[in-house]
Amino acid sequence: MVRKTKFDEVKEALNAVGIEFITFWEVRGVGKATQKRVYRGIKYDTSAIERMMITFICREKYVDPAIKAILESAKTGEIGDGRIFISEISDGYRIRTGEQGDKSVYGDHDA
User: Fold this and answer.
1) Distances (CA, A) of 8 to 24, 47, 52, 71
2) 3-class secondary-structure state, position 10
3) Which CATH number applies to 2-106?
4) What band does 98 get if pLDDT is binned at 50, 70 and 90?
5) Contact, 35 vs 47, CB < 8 A?
6) Which of 28, 59, 61 is nearest to 46 (CA)?
7) Mind listing the pLDDT tens digit for each residue in 61-85?
8) pLDDT tens, 4-46?
9) CA torsion sign, 77 to 88 to 29 to 2?
10) Domain ranges, ordered by start, for the chain
């Protein structure tokens, strides 16, 4: 999950390290940090900050370069820069062809 304002930079950085397909959606989250801002005498709660959630599946050899790309491109140095979560995929199927495992994601392409 990254700041909405950093999404394009993260997308380009991931593409540069070989991540060619991502899925993303706009999300909102509330954490410990809460802020109220005043604009023209009206108080606004800015604790629910817009984020972009990005997911992708990659081979092991791309994990570290992808993490590094996200860390470098998403960082502002301020609270709320985002999070990276890594999880393993036990299996996958391509619905159209019924292919399973690596073939379901990469087809017949070499590792």
Assistant:
1) 11, 23, 10, 14
2) helix
3) 3.30.70.120
4) very high
5) yes
6) 28
7) 999 999 999 999 999 998 889 999 9
8) 999 999 999 999 999 999 999 999 877 666 666 677 777 766 6
9) positive
10) 2-106
